[in-house]
């Protein structure tokens, strides 16, 4: 058996391999339809998950290959990403190789790749006792917790990392180790005891540091050495500075013959000390007070009196400009500033200091008074210019004292009607949300609606109080939950298409308000989440809606602009289409952007480019391909039907693709396990066609299609069974809802 890394070519027809390996072991009695669908999904997504792991840099796929039979015996997927626990995602062994050590070899190789320094976790179906016993042999312990959100509960097994014991290295002393004499034991002769010293560790020539490298310390006088006046390397020139052969490197120095002799004696003493020879120490000679170094070469420790240059065009306070208190001694001219080792590239020529222009960044010497600067700051901040509308930023309720925006018609705390200011709210006071068409009227409505939007102590949006009839006489009464009472003009749902009933309801009103449009959006979002993710996921999505303040501002601004537009219209088909497109786009934006982590980013963000599109100008083929995003899938897609295998095209047209002559076929997706394109789906500019295994072929036209929904792990398209995989099912449902609006 050969254990090696897997490649994409090793996993052809993997679905059949996995199906034969897990059934009937996974298909136990008592499973529900949803749980059986989860096992089926493991088979359908087997190749996708393996190919994704092969292409991932931090995941490893190992296979067991039988060279005699020339076939795949099993494989394992290990996740080594830097997290608290590495994981064994999947280990599959063909049933013919059970009990032959193939699983042991695969798991051993995976654990070696992960390493003992990492903790490892894995998931096992709760009824798979055989797998639990197998992993227990490798130190995996059942944590007692259930892992993930699966239809079939899975037990979490963990194996903690191996804690390495700290290695204590013996400290090597610089001196020879003392010989330890063992205590004599009764009946043992002294001659039999070995008192030889333990051998010293071998010191290689390249070991550093050694005893020979230890420095020798001794007090020496300050020789005040001179430095070279010019550097050896000339900056900006790709060459070394040269000099005549007879010219010494340092032409001038402070060392005389006695000083040089003293240095040579010190070097000799240091060498003798390291060599173990007797040291003859010579008394140090005090430094000779000879003539100072020539002025041409200034010593490094000499202080230079320099005039400071201005920094950032800020005048420096010079000594002549400083003022002192009575009796304070004026600094003498010996107080100087040392020149910095660098210079500012943005320095400007020195300007005359101006007492009337004192800047907070000016460099002030110690002792200088700061009254002038403080007075300027106080003067500049004493009376700031208040905006003209500052007095109308907030009003206060006369009943409970709650701060309210100036456009509020009632108190959102106690419900008391308010006196509305006649002046409009300034645009600077509103949230700077970039949205086309925002007007003062729409901004005022936004203030009114969003001021009481979020209540952190409840799991739903804050309840809107009753609206006075004098304010909105045409709007239906609103109850405490914000739901509008049914009107006579609303279309009654026949129970067959809930999504269509909702859309018809909020497009047949006699009058509109922002609060009513918000409630329509909420019902539409609830319907979409129910159809895509199920009723149990409603709480998670509405919690995200409540906490996402940025999306709330976008929604309220969009609906306020929509209401302003509706106020100027007098009904018609354009009104219904505008309302439907706006609400649907908001729901789609929320699912794609705000709630993307709740569905593991199944919808790509590039879908947002199709918000508020013109159906007459859009490239429908590109829209379909962007929504399905086949680049992240492993499905076999055919868009060029000339180069498509003739047999596959013939099978597809004979099996499920019954398009009319005038239909434009966008693609054909081949999902057959063995045969070419007998199972799969295709989309045209008018309909979707499909054929699933063990299911009859189906077709649905976008124009009269019912709302798609996901049930039991598969998609229901126009009340017919459809299944392209869990991720593709979600994408297709969103795409079909989009295309239904175009027809």
Computed over alpha carbons, the radius of gyration is 42 Å
Percentage of residues in helical conformation: 25-40%
What share of the residues does DSSP label as strand, in percent? 5-15%
Largest sheet: 7 strands, mixed
- Morphology call: extended
Q: How many runs of DSSP E, i.e. beta strands?
A: 17
Mean pLDDT across the residues is 70
Give the strand order of the largest sheet, numbering strands 1, 2, ... along the chain: 1-2-3-4-5-7-6
If helices are DSSP runs of H or I spanning 4 or more residues, what is the number of helices?
16
Which stretches of 5+ consecutive residues score pLDDT under 50? Answer: 173-209, 237-241, 296-353, 355-393, 420-496
- Please identify the structural class as seen in this structure: alpha+beta
**Ends apart, CA distance between termini:** 59 Å
Number of separate domains: 5
Describe the structure.
The protein folds into 5 domains: 2-159, Gcn5-related N-acetyltransferase (GNAT) (Aminopeptidase, 3-Layer(aba) Sandwich); 212-226 and 250-302, no CATH class; 311-381, no CATH class; 424-601, no CATH class; 614-728, no CATH class. The chain has a 7-stranded mixed sheet, sandwiched between helices. It has helices at residues 14-22, 33-44, 46-55, 102-114, 129-136, 257-275, 371-382, 440-450, 498-506, 514-533, 538-547, 549-567, 573-594, 620-628, 646-655, 726-740; strands at residues 2-5, 59-66, 71-79, 86-93, 120-125, 141-146, 154-159, 395-396, 403-404, 636-638, 665-670, 680-684, 687-691, 698-701, 709-711, 714-717, 720-722. The protein has 743 residues and is of the alpha+beta class.
């Amino acid at each position: 058996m050969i254990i090696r890394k897997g490649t994409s070519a090793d996993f052809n027809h993997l679905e059949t391999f996995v199906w034969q390996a897990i059934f009937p072991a996974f298909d136990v009695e008592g499973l529900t339809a949803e749980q059986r669908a989860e096992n089926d999904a493991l088979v359908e997504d087997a190749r996708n998950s393996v190919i994704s792991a092969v292409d991932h840099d931090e995941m490893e796929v190992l296979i067991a290959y039988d060279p005699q039979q020339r076939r795949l015996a099993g494989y394992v997927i290990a996740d080594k990403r830097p997290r608290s626990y590495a994981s064994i995602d999947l280990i599959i062994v063909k049933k013919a190789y059970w009990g032959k050590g193939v699983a042991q070899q695969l798991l051993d190789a995976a654990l070696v790749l992960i390493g003992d320094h990492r903790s490892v976790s894995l998931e096992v179906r709760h009824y798979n006792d055989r797998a639990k016993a197998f992993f227990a042999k490798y130190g995996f312990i059942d944590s007692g917790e259930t892992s993930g959100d699966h239809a079939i509960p899975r037990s979490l097994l963990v194996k903690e990392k191996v804690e390495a014991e700290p290695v204590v290295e013996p400290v090597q002393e610089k001196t020879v180790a003392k010989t330890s004499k063992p205590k004599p034991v009764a009946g043992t002769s002294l001659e039999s005891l070995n008192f030889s010293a333990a051998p010293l560790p071998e010191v290689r020539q390249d070991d550093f540091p050694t005893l020979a490298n230890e420095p020798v310390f001794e007090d020496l006088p300050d020789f005040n050495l001179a430095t070279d006046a010019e550097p050896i390397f000339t900056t900006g020139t790709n060459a070394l500075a040269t000099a005549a052969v007879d010219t010494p490197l340092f032409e001038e120095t402070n060392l005389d013959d006695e000083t040089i002799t003293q240095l040579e004696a010190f070097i000799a003493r240091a060498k003798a000390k390291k060599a173990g020879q007797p040291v003859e120490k010579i008394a140090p000679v005090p430094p000779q007070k000879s003539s100072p170094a020539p002025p041409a070469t200034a010593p490094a420790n000499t202080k230079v009196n320099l005039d400071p240059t201005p920094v950032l065009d800020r005048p420096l306070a010079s000594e002549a400009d400083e003022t002192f208190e009575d009796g304070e001694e004026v600094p003498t001219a010996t107080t100087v500033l040392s020149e910095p080792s660098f210079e500012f590239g943005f320095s400007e020529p020195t300007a005359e200091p101006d007492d009337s222009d004192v800047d907070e960044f000016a460099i002030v010497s110690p002792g200088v008074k700061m009254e002038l600067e403080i007075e300027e700051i106080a003067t500049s901040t004493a009376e700031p210019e208040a905006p003209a509308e500052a007095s109308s930023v907030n009003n206060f309720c006369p009943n409970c004292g709650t701060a309210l925006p100036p456009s509020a018609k009632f108190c959102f705390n106690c419900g008391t009607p308010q006196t509305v200011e006649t002046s409009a709210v300034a645009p600077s006071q509103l949230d700077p949300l970039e949205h086309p068409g925002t007007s003062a009227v729409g901004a005022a409505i936004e203030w009114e609606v969003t001021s009481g939007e979020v209540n952190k102590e409840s799991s739903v949006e804050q309840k809107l109080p009753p609206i006075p009839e004098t304010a909105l006489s045409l709007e239906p009464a609103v109850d405490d939950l914000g739901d509008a009472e049914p009107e006579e003009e609303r279309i009654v749902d026949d129970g067959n298409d809930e999504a269509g009933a909702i859309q018809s309801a909020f497009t047949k009103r006699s009058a509109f308000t922002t609060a009513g449009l918000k409630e329509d959006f909420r019902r539409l979002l609830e319907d979409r989440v129910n159809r895509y993710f199920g009723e149990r996921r409603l709480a998670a999505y509405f919690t995200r809606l409540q906490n996402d303040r940025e999306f709330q501002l976008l929604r309220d601004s969009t609906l306020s602009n929509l209401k302003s537009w509706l106020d100027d219209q007098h009904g018609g088909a354009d009104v219904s289409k505008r309302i439907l497109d706006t609400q649907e786009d908001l729901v789609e934006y929320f699912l794609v952007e705000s709630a993307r982590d709740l569905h593991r980013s199944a919808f790509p963000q590039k879908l947002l480019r199709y918000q508020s599109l013109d159906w007459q100008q859009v490239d429908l083929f590109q829209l379909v391909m962007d929504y399905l995003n086949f680049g992240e899938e492993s499905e076999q897609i055919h868009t060029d039907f000339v180069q498509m295998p003739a047999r596959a095209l013939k099978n597809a047209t004979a099996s499920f693709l019954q398009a009319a002559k005038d239909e434009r076929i966008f693609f054909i997706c081949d999902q057959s396990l063995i045969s070419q394109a007998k199972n799969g789906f295709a989309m045209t500019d008018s309909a979707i066609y499909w054929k699933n295994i063990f299911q009859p072929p189906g077709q649905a036209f976008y124009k009269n299609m019912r709302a798609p929904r996901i049930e039991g792990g598969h998609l229901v398209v126009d009340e017919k069974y459809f299944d392209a995989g869990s991720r593709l099912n979600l994408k297709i449902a969103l795409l079909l809802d989009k295309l239904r609006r175009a027809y």
